[in-house]
């Protein structure tokens, strides 16, 4: 059985898995709600599900080879739980209200910024040659998602400028 710090890290990884699935659900709902940009949202959802699969594999590595991992300084369990709740609330907002796509994009931007703030890389420390690049890919994807969302926000704002001038 894993010692307590590694057990806590596994709990954090399980919450990270849940958070990735929740974010994927948010993007999936956006793809259904905003059909004009369905491919944009669906691609983000697909990548978040890929992150979930990676985190599942990371959890298995920690379970199978616990001696190769050291628990991080502090595991942000409450922060991850709060993030999941907020994202679930965003899902309800997109699903049940008449929210506009620009507001959904701002929600997505906040989601991706929060992922960076949670610093997934600090949940466990390791030199494991399988684990590190997998986690690195999630972090890289998150930065890319933020850039994609920022670009989409900018594009929507630029498209809206002419209509504001003519009113």
- Helix tally equals 5
Give a short account of the largest sheet.
2 strands, antiparallel
Q: H/E element string?
A: HHEHHEH
Strand order of the largest sheet: 1-2
The fraction of residues assigned to DSSP E strands is under 5%
The CATH architecture can be named as Up-down Bundle
Count of beta strands: 2
The CATH class, by name, is Mainly Alpha
Oligomer: single chain
Principal-axes geometry comes out as: elongated
Radius of gyration from CA coordinates: 18 Å
Number of domain modules: 1
The residue fraction in helices comes out at over 70%
What is the mean pLDDT?
Answer: 86
Nutshell version of this structure?
With 167 residues, this protein is mostly helical. It contains five helices and two strands.
Fold and architecture overview:
With 167 residues, the chain is mainly alpha-helical. It has a single domain (4-165), classed as Ferritin, CATH 1.20.1260. Helix content is 78%, strand content 4%. It has helices at 4-33, 38-64, 77-96, 101-118, 131-165; strands at 69-71, 124-126. It has a two-stranded antiparallel ribbon. The longest helix is centred in the last third of the chain and has 35 residues, at 131-165. The chain is elongated and about 60 Å long. The model has no long low-confidence stretch (mean pLDDT 86).
